[in-house]
Amino acid sequence: MGQETIKYSIRQDGKVTQEVFNVPGDACLNLTEDIELELGDLEDRTYTVDYYQQPNLNTDVTLQYNQNEN
Q1: In the list 23, 49, 66, 68, which could disulfide-bond 28, CB 3.0-4.6 Å?
Q2: 7-24 tens-digit pLDDT
Q3: pLDDT at 49
Q4: Torsion of CA 36, 51, 17, 34, to 10 degrees
Q5: What does the pLDDT read at residue 69?
Q6: What are phi and psi of 21, to 5 degrees?
């Protein structure tokens, strides 16, 4: 997966478009929440393929079973 990116475009009529790339799941909503509040009323939200992907929660785990038994 590529670098997490937020792209803002400001049209001549003053409307702002925000695009989030390479942020899986609903993390993009948390990432952009503060700036959206500052920009004003949200007119429309379109979800990309990244939104519907599950974030990678895989981590390395070491299990030690019956460690205290002889």
Answers
A1: 23
A2: 999 999 988 899 998 888
A3: 85
A4: 10
A5: 63
A6: -120, 140
| 23 burial type by CB count under 10 A (0-12 exposed, 13-18 middle, 19+ buried) | buried
* Burial label, 66 (beta-carbon count in 10 A; 0-12, 13-18, 19+): exposed
Domain residue spans in the chain? 1-70
Within 13 A of 34's CA, how many CA atoms are on the CB side? Answer: 1
- Tens-place pLDDT, residues 14-52: 888 999 988 888 888 888 999 888 888 888 888 888 888
What is the enclosing helix (H) or strand (E) of 29?
helix 27-39
Query: Minimal CA–CA distance to 32: which of 43, 19, 44?
Result: 19
